[in-house]
Structure formats: structure tokens, C-alpha cells
Design brief:
Elements (H helix, E strand, L loop, with lengths): L4 E2 L2 E5 L6 H15 L6 E6 L3 H16 L3 E7 L2 H10 L4 E5 L8 E7 L8 H11 L17 E3 L1 H13 L9 E5 L9 H7 L3 E5 L18 H10 L3 E5 L6 E4 L5 E2 L1 H15 L6 E5 L4 H9 L3 E5 L3 H11 L3 E3 L5 E3 L8 H15 L3 H4 L8 E7 L3 H6 L1 H14 L4 E6 L5 E7 L3 H17 L6
Parallel strand pairs: 3-4, 3-5, 4-7, 8-9, 8-10, 13-14, 13-15
Antiparallel strand pairs: 1-2, 2-6, 5-6, 10-11, 11-12, 15-16, 17-19, 18-19
Helix pairs in contact: 1-2, 1-4, 3-5, 8-11, 14-15
Length: about 450
């Protein structure tokens, strides 16, 4: 990770860790970098945070000052930016979002011309420019100054693309959607209504400060209650920028990313569309998923945490399905990034093809108890290099043996150390997690 850019772009509290001057300089550099030999075209989308409008203006000012033309999608999901970039000949795209973070955080995600996350070497150049290490970039003048254009049509084309992928009517299926008061608010209900579903929607009234607040994929208990109270067939919860999706079955049970990978992996295998017979996961995926895939004759690969690493593995090996437990699921036949609404549509396809509810389709999957504890710390690197912390983690690993595992890692986007344990019981998970968490606290690293 760089000084400013982590695993998912440049992220921080708005006007604290990430301010308008940063955004302006990012725009200045991108307009210059992509416009060296032609008039650069850049598309920008944003989520519903209050600060997203401020950053949109700052980025647009920087880009046009360097000579780039800017096309505004306005409030839209992150995957729509990726789709528009790769299908309509843009040099790059920018999504203004901090995903599942609180409203006061924000982020700048840069997407290259192929629809993927920006290359690390270009991020390094942006950081050098922000820190004044590259000298001045010339301003565009006269007719070379860029202009800004409303490009809502790009978002509408993305909606049309999603609908074109569905092969069955959703008529009479009762579907709940939790839009997290975020980007899905502009997309999801319209798609499901058009496909014939009986759509029940919650948390689709963003006010700039309620994004992700007690709703969406990070607070799915609200959707669980909503599905059960309304007798729905299925529910889908998105995060702030709608690039991830979790589901709730008709019984109110949570369907996480591992379960989605299992259902879709088996479905694609049956259709002969699971390339190389492999599902790509991250190291966070549950042991139960791996055992279930093996029973179905499906292979798997593990990557580091982050959908960028999942996609790199998929791209390098021609795999068709991969994702994260958190709900970032990539279907490479249709997209090059995680897409929450697309994921929900693929799950609907499985249900309708099998003529079964998700609760029935997941009967053969046994998920091991898992506990993840996030510890807010002063210095992530210090914690990860501390010998006593490493010793505690090793002792937990030995205690669990083949019947569980521990994963100790630093967050790529927040000042957190994540301690995750899988074991055969909830009690054992808790016991082993806190063997490590307590050492981190005793060593004085935790911020209370």
C-alpha cells in the first residue's frame, strides 16, 4: 500500500485525511497523464455522502484545468462506472465513495480504461504529485480547457445491461431490497420492478448522512427482520456503493459471500460455465465452503483479501467466478469488478432455475463458526511486527490444528487489526480470538 492509496483507493475522513486539495490534485494529475497525446475523457460517479458532491466538484476542476473532458454519472454504483469506462471508450473512471464506511469518510477509487482498479505504478505517480515531488503540471488554456457534461445516460445504459442478462421473469417473486441509503437507491428497485418482481424496498431515502447507518450489508439484521415480517421469498442487502451484496433467505437466515460462491459455483458447473472448474476465494473464506466445494468436485484458489486480488487471479487464469465473504462477487463473463445488483440477479437465476428457495438450496453446506474482532490501533505495522502478538497467534494456530484456523491481518482501508478465528464451536472461537486481542491490548496498541 502507498502513502495515500490503499487496497481500495484513496480513503479517509472527508476534509481530514482526504480533503478537496487532494481531490483537485488527483484530477490535475489524471487529466495531464491521460491527455498527453489526445483529449482525455474521464467519467465520474459518486455515492450519496454529503461530501461526495464536494469531491466531485474538486475532481472536475482539476481534470478540466488539465484539459480533460469530464462526464458525470451522478449518484451511481461503483460497477456502473467500470461498465461505462470499458464499454464507451473512456480513458479512466473515478468513483467517489468509501463503500461500507460511515458517512463522514469518503474515498476516491480510480478505474483504468479496461474497467479494472488503477495500476499501482500510476497511483505512486499521483502520490508523488500530491507531495510536490513531480514539479508543476501545465494548465490547459483557451480551447484546450476541458468541459463537464451531464452523462446520466451512461447510468441508464448500465441498468439496461443488467436487465439484458436476466433470462427469466421475476413475476410473483416477493423480493426485499435494502439499498443502504446509498448508490443502489438509484438502480435496484427500477431493475426489479421492470423484471416483474413484487419489490419491497427499505433504506432507499439517502439524506447525505444516513448511508450505511444501521442498514445495508453491514447491518443485515434489519433486512432479516423485514423479510420475515413481510413473508418475502428472498432479500438482498447492498453496501454504500453497491459493489457488494449479501442475501437473506425466506427463513431470515443470512446468505454471505461464501454461500453465494457455493450456490453460483455449483450452478455454473452444472451449466458447463465454471471455467477450469475453479472458484476463487480469499483467505477469509470459511473452511465449510472448501469442504462443500470438494464434495461437489469443484476446485478452489485462495488470494489475499481484496477483490482486486481475486480479479487478478481470475484474469490470469481465465476463471469465471470469484469473490469475498463480505459479498464482493465477480462474474467475469459479465463484469470485471464486484457488482452487488448483478450478484442478486445471478442468485435469482439460480432460485428460478432450481425452483427452490435459498434455504433449501443450502442444505448441504455446513459453515464453521467464525468470529472476527476488529481492534482499532495506533500503528498497524507495529502490531503486525510485535513478537508477542505473533507468538500468541502461533499458539492459537497450534491449539486449533486441523479443526480451525486463525487469520491476523491489517485492514487496507482503516486503522484496524482484524483477528479472525474459525473453530468447531462459538465458544472455542471466542476463547482463541481473545487470546490474541488481549495481547494487542496489553501491549498498549489499542485505541479505546
Amino acid at each position: 500500500m502507498g502513502k495515500y492509496f490503499g487496497t481500495d483507493g484513496f480513503r479517509g475522513e472527508a476534509n481530514v485525511g482526504l480533503n478537496v486539495e487532494h481531490a483537485y490534485k488527483v484530477g490535475r494529475f489524471l487529466g495531464y497523464y491521460y491527455g498527453k497525446d489526445h483529449k482525455a475523457k474521464v467519467v465520474i460517479g459518486k455515492d450519496t455522502r454529503r461530501s461526495s458532491y464536494m469531491f466531485e466538484d474538486a475532481l472536475s476542476a482539476g481534470l478540466t484545468a488539465s484539459g480533460a473532458d469530464v462526464y458525470l454519472l451522478h449518484v451511481t454504483p461503483t460497477p456502473s462506472v467500470s461498465y461505462v469506462v470499458r464499454s464507451e471508450d473512456f480513458d479512466c473512471g473515478i468513483m467517489i465513495s468509501a463503500s461500507h464506511n460511515p458517512f463522514y469518510d469518503n474515498g476516491i477509487k480510480i478505474i483504468n480504461g479496461a474497467g479494472h482498479k488503477l495500476e499501482a505504478d500510476v497511483e505512486e505517480k499521483i502520490e508523488a504529485y500530491i507531495d510536490g515531488e513531480l514539479g508543476e503540471i501545465p494548465y490547459a488554456t483557451r480551447e484546450n480547457i476541458g468541459c463537464t457534461t451531464d452523462y446520466s445516460v451512461g447510468r441508464h445504459r448500465y441498468i439496461g445491461y443488467l436487465m439484458s442478462l436476466v433470462t427469466r421473469s421475476f413475476k410473483n417473486v416477493k423480493v426485499g431490497l435494502d439499498c443502504s441509503n446509498g448508490s443502489a437507491s438509484t438502480i435496484a428497485k427500477g431493475v426489479y420492478d421492470a423484471l416483474g418482481a413484487k419489490t419491497y424496498v427499505i433504506h432507499n431515502e439517502p439524506d447525505g448522512t444516513n448511508i450505511n447507518r444501521d442498514c445495508g450489508s453491514t447491518h443485515i439484521e434489519t433486512l432479516q427482520k423485514f423479510v420475515k415480517e413481510n413473508g418475502l421469498d428472498v432479500g438482498f442487502a447492498f453496501d454504500g456503493d453497491a459493489d457488494r451484496c449479501l442475501a437473506v433467505d425466506d427463513q431470515g437466515n443470512v446468505i454471505d459471500g461464501d454461500m453465494i460462491l457455493y450456490l453460483c459455483g455449483c450452478y455454473l458447473k452444472e451449466k458447463g460455465e465454471l471455467n477450469e472448474n475453479v472458484v476463487v476465494t480469499t483467505v477469509m473464506s470459511n473452511i465449510g465452503l472448501y469442504k462443500a466445494l470438494e464434495e461437489k468436485g469443484i476446485c478452489y484458489e485462495q488470494t489475499a483479501v481484496g477483490d482486486k486480488y481475486v480479479y487478478e487471479s481470475m484474469m490470469n487464469n481465465n476463471y469465471s467466478l470469484g469473490g469475498e465473504q463480505s459479498g464482493h462477487i465477480i462474474f467475469s463473463k459479465y463484469a470485471v469488478t464486484g457488482d452487488g445488483v448483478l450478484t442478486s440477479l445471478m442468485l435469482m437465476e439460480v432460485m428460478l432455475e432450481k425452483k427452490e428457495k435459498l434455504s433449501v438450496l443450502l442444505r448441504d453446506l455446513h459453515i464453521f463458526p467464525q468470529l472476527l474482532v476488529n481492534v482499532r490501533v495506533k500503528d498497524k505495522k507495529q502490531v503486525m511486527e510485535d513478537e508477542q502478538v505473533k507468538k500468541a497467534a502461533e499458539e492459537v494456530k497450534e491449539a486449533l490444528g486441523k479443526n480451525g484456523r486463525i487469520l491476523l491481518r491489517e485492514s487496507g482501508t482503516e486503522p484496524l487489526i482484524r483477528v479472525m478465528v474459525e473453530a468447531e464451536s462459538d465458544e472455542e472461537c471466542r476463547k482463541q480470538v481473545y487470546r490474541v486481542v488481549d495481547v494487542i491490548k496489553d501491549r498498549g496498541y489499542a485505541l479505546e
